Write the structure tokens for this entry.
Amino acid sequence: MRVRTREDLRRERRSRSHGCWDHLVAAPLWPLHGANLGTLLRTCDAAGACLAVPRLPWVPEALARGNTLRRPACVHWTGSPVRWLERQRERGSAVVGVELAEESVRLGDLPVARGRTVMVLGHEQTGVPPEALDLLDVVVEIPMVGTGASLNVAVAGSLVLYRLAGLV
């Protein structure tokens, strides 16, 4: 077995960075921890997605710290999270929420995104707020065997992004 070099990887992947993928958008609209935003930003680059975040005072610094790629990343800024989600639906986007809910789809059963898709992540402790739940077309749940109730936002978002992108 031969390990691929950085040069091998560069040849196999896209030839330039993107301005905006606009096909797949990760939206942690109620963030709690800046470290999770940095991790999601890196995953967005890997999965070919953009990141949508609210304009909170601490978010730009968290994104700058988390952007280990050291080049501009595709970030969309939102105002009111609920209003932003309403506009995405009006544009025809599918809205997929990552949440523990009665009618959720297991991650393994989630289909690959075929059109513009927004993946919504809730607050680390309280999840997606009730006023936003009605805006979700599909709710996906990540099965767990251990004793924890859920994964953190960065890990859950990364798993679902890879599934929606068709990379797993």
